[in-house]
Specification:
The structure holds 2 protein chains of 2 kinds. By secondary structure, chain A is an alpha+beta fold. Chain A has 22 helices and 17 strands. Chain A has a domain of about 230 residues: 2-Layer Sandwich (Alpha-Beta Plaits). In chain A, the strands form 7 sheets. Chain A has a 5-stranded mixed beta sheet, sandwiched between helices. In chain A, strands 2-7 form a two-stranded antiparallel sheet. Chain B has one domain: Transmembrane di-heme cytochromes, Chain C (Fumarate Reductase Cytochrome B subunit, Up-down Bundle), CATH 1.20.950.20. Classes of the chains: A alpha+beta, B mainly alpha. The interface between A and B is large, with 66 and 62 residues.
């Protein structure tokens, strides 16, 4: 057993309101630079949608991640042979149009243009060429199902759905969507690290953050292809690849990453997981249907005495083990079994888990006989003389899981490599917590009904209360359990951050200037 | 004329090699962030194929050809002792030279007709293009007009290059070569001198190491196992990065 610690995350999708505050926090701190304007280390996508870059989930196009051939895993579009042969021209590299060409507006024209018959306008100008452009795409171009025929309908996850099922999803009355915030998953089996020919990308042993050494990156661009989540970006100006650094300067100082700190819906949790590093390859190589299970199995119980001993032998600090025991991520992922990795079939063992969205179906539409009621009404009030009613009673809820607003198949293709039972299991738990809490706070659910529901979901009232508490009422220090970095034992403290603001990152003492 | 010969064949090589060595080492150690191939595939990914691929494979083989004639001249001469084999060698080299030239021309056209690439193009790129096109064209010209290059390179240029590296420059044979060959030599050394100042540095860091390193890389800031052990005196585990 080779115990290592990993700073892992849980995003609770039911709580995401799609406000993009996380994206803005990240952009302002890290990617507000020339060459990085198009990058969103943190972005929030609307699902169904094609995402950013367009159709990133379709590995037939982008060739990212690992694939299993003859019982072993290989990088799909990179690797030693492909990487070195394709080094002069990478056929699987997304280009800037797959993201969008960054632009700004000539705001000065609004006040400086000469007097004329027309209202002055601020024309869009490209941030690459500096010339006026015709905007084709921008950040969150398909937000909230905008341009559904062009975007949402081409969602790669639709592949598994029959045309009828897709049609149902896009009927105006039944349309539903949810948000999918994405950052780098800081995977246990990162494809970007494996694909980097110069060896610039590495996983930090202490906390598992995946970083690109800007001094060693030579712009061979293989990481952009290899990352199936397309979370490694090429800076076209400096000629270096960049990615989410999980705000490691903040984490080392005990602060939550900027995106998590600023999260309005408080959907984000960050904590330590202990895992067995000797089993990584084996875990990533199992059959597709067992991937989620094997990924959960590699995560160790931080209360187990053997695990604690092995962790100590491996030099993991007591404070880190302690943080692992209080980790909200451990609770969501292992203890309660509520969170799942995004696209486990890419086999990178992502360490960002999602609580699948229930898209609160706490009411069903029910046909009722309103005739008597309607007859009493004044004709002018009979505008809505239909016989449909929202039924918020809990009697029908359990049976409605299959007819839920979002096809189970769709959610399953996102979070469980197509295993619908697994999603149903999570949904049942989420629903059971709601029904249980309704019994406690509203009181219109019978005890028998609530008990039956809890039993069915496989949790007890105590667990349901704990899930409720960590979901709805968590304080800052419950959401982010960050272990001390113990830099006092290690290297010199950070340089003054003001000196390097606007540069590529910390730790580069020479001037960060493009090469010639 | 003698002065010019001396400059091109003696002064320039030493100057170029010195600039190349000192410049590359300086840039690698002090300006490491600027070590990059500065790929522009991200801004224009379709036409690059028709430029980058023929150019790079061409230059790889042509450079290796020159390197072979320099390092194993006797073997090359032995190979060339049969006309068929000589023809095979020369034609292969010529084809790769053509591929280089075609690639270069495509690259230049691409770079100067794609609006997006303007923002990542500087004067050094122009200098590199001009020198490389000149060098490739002159090289092809020589290969066509003064046959058979692989043989006379091994007998005339290899001893000359050896004499340069032995610090006893001997130009008696080389001065008699036509001016085009001298131009080829002069441009070659100019390009070598330009390497540390241009994007050409990327060829010095071709990632061969990738072939034998493990796929996954994990790095520790310091040896935590030792830090944790009470047996280790603190003074031995001083900060690693000081």
């Amino acid at each position: 057993m080779d115990v290592r610690s990993q700073v892992a995350m849980v995003f609770h999708l039911d709580k995401c309101i799609g406000c993009h505050t996380c994206s803005i926090a990240c952009k302002n701190i890290w990617t507000d630079r020339k060459g990085a304007e198009y990058m969103w280390w943190n972005n929030v996508e609307t699902k169904p949608g094609t995402g950013y870059p367009s159709k990133w989930e379709d590995q037939d196009i982008y060739k990212g991640g690992w694939e299993k051939r003859n019982g072993k895993i290989h990088l799909r579009g990179a690797g030693k042979r492909r990487g070195l042969v394709n080094i002069f021209y990478n056929p699987n590299l997304p280009v800037i149009d797959d993201y969008y060409e960054p632009f700004t507006y000539k705001y000065l024209d609004l006040i400086e243009s000469p007097e004329g018959d027309d209202q002055p306008t601020a024309r869009p100008v490209s941030l690459v060429t500096g010339k006026p452009i015709d905007i084709k795409m921008g950040p969150n171009w398909d937000d909230d199902l905008g341009g559904t025929p062009d975007y949402a309908r081409h969602d790669p996850n639709m592949k598994n759905l029959s045309p009828e099922e897709q049609e149902v999803m896009f009927q105006l009355e039944k349309m539903a969507f949810f948000y999918l915030p994405r950052i780098c998953n800081h995977c246990l089996n990162p494809a970007c690290v494996a694909s980097c020919p110069s060896g610039a990308i590495y996983k930090r042993g202490e906390d598992g953050v995946v970083l690109i050494n800007q001094q060693v990156c030579r712009a061979w661009r293989m990481c952009v292809t290899a990352c199936p989540y397309k979370k490694s970006y090429y800076n076209w100006y400096t000629g270096k690849s960049e990615k989410c650094i999980l705000c490691y300067p903040r984490i080392e100082a005990g602060l939550a990453p900027a995106c998590m700190h600023s999260c309005v819906g408080r959907i984000r949790y960050l904590g330590v997981l202990l895992y067995d590093a000797s089993k990584i390859e084996q875990t990533a190589s199992v059959d597709e249907k067992d991937l989620v299970k094997s990924q959960l199995d590699i995560i160790l119980d931080p209360f187990d005495e053997n695990v604690i001993r092995a962790a100590k032998e491996n030099g993991i600090a007591d404070s880190t083990i302690h943080a692992a025991q209080f980790s909200p991520v451990y609770k969501f992922v292992k203890k309660w079994g509520l969170a799942l990795p995004l696209h486990p079939e890419f086999r990178t063992l992502p360490m960002l888990f999602y609580v699948p969205p229930l898209l609160p179906v706490m009411a069903t539409v029910k046909k009722v006989d309103n005739k008597e009621q309607l007859d009493k009404m004044h004709p002018a009030a009979k505008k809505w003389n239909d016989n449909w009613l929202y039924d918020t009673s809990t009697e029908e809820l359990w049976g409605s899981l299959d007819q839920i607003r979002f096809p189970l198949k769709y959610i399953a293709s996102l979070f469980s490599a197509g295993d619908e039972e697994m999603i149903k299991d999570k949904w049942k738990k989420l629903m059971a917590v709601r029904i249980h809490r309704r019994r406690v706070t509203v009181g219109d659910v019978s005890n028998e009904k609530a008990e039956e529901v809890l039993r069915d979901a496989g949790i007890n009232a105590e667990t349901a209360d704990a899930i409720y508490a960590l979901t709805s009422l968590p304080k800052f220090e419950e959401r982010f359990v960050i272990p001390a970095a113990h830099r006092e034992q290690a290297i010199e403290m950070m340089d003054f951050t003001g000196d390097t603001k606007g540069d590529t990152g910390f730790g580069i003492k020479s001037q960060v200037k493009r090469g010639i | 004329m003698n002065y010019l010969d001396n400059f091109i064949l003696i002064a320039l090589p030493y100057l170029a090699l010195a600039v190349f060595l000192i410049g590359s080492i300086y840039r690698y150690t002090n300006r490491k962030f600027q070590f990059s191939s500065l790929s522009s595939e991200f801004l224009e990914g379709r036409r690059l194929f028709y430029g980058s691929v023929p150019f790079h494979w061409g230059v790889l083989f042509v450079f290796c050809g020159h390197l072979l004639a320099f390092s194993i001249p006797k073997a090359i001469l032995a190979w060339n002792s049969q006309p068929v084999r000589l023809m095979i060698l020369e034609i292969t080299g010529f084809i790769f030279g053509i591929s280089m030239l075609v690639g270069l021309i495509n690259l230049v056209i691409r770079r100067y007709t794609t609006p997006r690439l303007k923002s990542v193009t500087n004067y050094m790129d122009l200098a590199v293009y001009v020198l490389l096109i000149l060098q490739t064209f002159v090289g092809l010209w020589i290969a066509y007009n003064f046959r058979w290059g692989s043989s006379w390179f091994s007998t005339i240029l290899t001893p000359y290059l050896y004499s340069i590296f032995r610090l006893q420059p001997d130009t008696t044979a080389v001065v008699l070569l036509p001016w085009t060959v001298k131009l080829h030599i002069a441009t070659a050394f100019t390009i070598i001198a330009l390497i540390p100042f241009s994007r050409l540095v990327h060829m010095l860091v071709y990632p061969l190491n990738y072939l034998w390193r493990p796929y996954q890389q994990v790095m520790w800031n310091w040896n935590r196992k030792k830090v944790r052990s009470s047996q280790t005196p603190w003074s031995l585990q001083r900060p690693k990065n000081t």
